[in-house]
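for ur thesis appendix - DNA-3-methyladenine glycosylase II. copy paste whatever u need, i formatted it the way the template wanted (i think)
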Amino acid sequence: MCRRDRQVDAVRKKVGEPLPWTRPPTFATLTRIILEQQVSLASAKSTFDRLKTQCGGLVNAKRILRLTDEDLRGCGLSRQKARYVNLLAEDVRLRKFSISALARMNNEAVRESITARMGLGNWTADIFLLMALRREDILPIGDLALVKGIQELDPAVGSSVEEIVERAEIWRPYRSAATKMIWTLYLFNRKR
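the 3d part is after this line
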């Protein structure tokens, strides 16, 4: 990828190897990704940490379903995110959704299975595919840090989906690695 894209190669030389950005393929990971929707990673981590404490150290469907809406709100979940997490836990309990089965599915089947859940869209599916299932060619187009990072990498690129996808085409079939490099650049540029 670095041989094909000199700008990515320059970033690698500037910031080093990309951060690993991996998580286990679990209910807790999917819950944390829900909490990361449209908020900073630091804010989502703080909320997740409070939720984990409330769940006795282990976030799973069974423990989530024991919590009241007030418990979830007390951890910092909005009404909407509390609803999404509860519905996800209920789908797991009723065996309408199996997180372990996702590893055996192709990318589109994973995306369809995740996005069939209330409040879980393509961004959530992409982040789970990239971080938890470690699929090699994922481009989470709806990720603001990725869009801003690509524009910082290549100022000629606009913010339209088409321009982002076109700029990322050279990274196939390793768009996940490129995404991690762009995220690393994004954090580096903000001294984080």
